[in-house]
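INTERNAL TRANSFER SHEET
From: sequence group
To: structure group
Subject: GerMN domain-containing protein

Please process the attached sequence and return the structure record in the designated field. Keep the field labels unchanged so the import script can parse them.
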Amino acid sequence: MRGKKGILCLMLAILLGVSGCSNLMLFEAQSTRDVELPEISGEDYVAPWGDSQADYLERAGIYYINEDAQQLARSEISYLLTPSEDQMVTVLNRLLGETPDDVAAVAPEGTRLLGVEAAGSVVTVNLSLEARGADSDQRILWLYAAIANTLTEMSNITGVNILINGRQEAVLSLPMGVMAQSDGDLTALWAQQQADAQRAQLSETSSTSRTALLYFPAMEGAWFVAEPRDLTFVDGNYATALLAALSQPAREVSARPVLNAVNELLSTPSVVLTEEGFRFLQLDFSEQIHALMDEAGVSAYEFVGMLALTMTSFVPAIDGVQVSVEGSLLREVSDGETVHSFADGVFLRSHFADEIGSVVKLYFRAEEGGLIAVERVVSPLVARSPRLLLIQLMQDQNGYASAFPAGCNGDDILGVRIADGVAHVNWSANFYRLCQNLDYAAERDLVYAIVNTLTELTNVRGVQFSFEGRLADTLANSIYLKTVLLRNPGLVQDE
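Return from structure group:
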């Protein structure tokens, strides 16, 4: 939507084109500039020309159900991951498709992985319809627990939200929301779920606490950002509670100003069942909602997008959202540039899923010296690409100063290769020349802005620099470069 798919395809084509070259003529002109490059010192080092990643061996813990169905059983596996494979997808496919002899399968036969969305520290997993074939709610809960424990063992993942065919599937009529890692005691998990369900049935004013995933329009760029929020739900009115949470400022992510939409609801949200068997959540707002959107700088497209993503992530068994203003169904919404049409006024999760941004951490120079870590929302493609992350670093961002000297651009990156946990970055002669007058602090900050940013990638632990294919003792005068550099957290200042 909004042209993003075309932009991402173009960026991917550029990256693939670069990676297919073994000796890039694009950078030949920079090699001939009048700059004294490091001398060839005889080291047996092959610098990258173009971008590539080596296959690498990974280990992961996968959780199955033990034979007596009382406890999750952890099994450690080793697997070779290729550059085209996603670690979470690979591990989940193993969990769903292969079961060791001494444990029980976690999912009904034929259950497939439809997709994985990573939003900050929370992952949303979408399973195929076959997962609903579990013989009891208890088995669905165990499936959820096995997936949550498996993924939260991975770096930087703290919670897992699970959908079945794009819908939140309730367990004993209660949504699960974002699940954290548990101790694997299946009996205790089931007993807690039963207690929550019984309490909800016995009292109309009972409350249930869950962690919901809220989606907001990002402060910068045309992306949605997700934030987990601990909420208490009363009377099973999930939609109103979620809308109230969306009407509060985001706490962990950089999002647009608050849009206090909950006060403009004209009626209690309800779910309608169509003749075709689809279930849609209906939300009706007053005319004042348009003024609130204008005041917050949120387009109608962003408003319905945040509702569709948030509601389908938590409200059980809904396929999408219908939004009305004074009873008039919205079928066309604008993002400020383009008017988007939606058949029957139905907003599905799939309409906006490609616009969920990834939060990356970039390192810029702090005013008092050293570095400052800045979170930015970018496309998933940028978040996975060392080259594109480095290009982001070269530009000042929202008042944060780049550590790169003026005159650097993406053409100065001759190649990046990730192998055995090391990002090998080959820089141009122009980059080397521009850095020769840096003082100690500027040189240090530049080197470790690069190192700290690249080592945020899960498969990078260190960085090796080269220049036109040659190793150098230093970039300017001070930081020794003929070694793999590890991240330097001591340089990072608090905001």
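Handover comment: The chain has two domains: 4-32+361-493, 56-355. Residues 4-32+361-493 form one domain.
Transfer complete.
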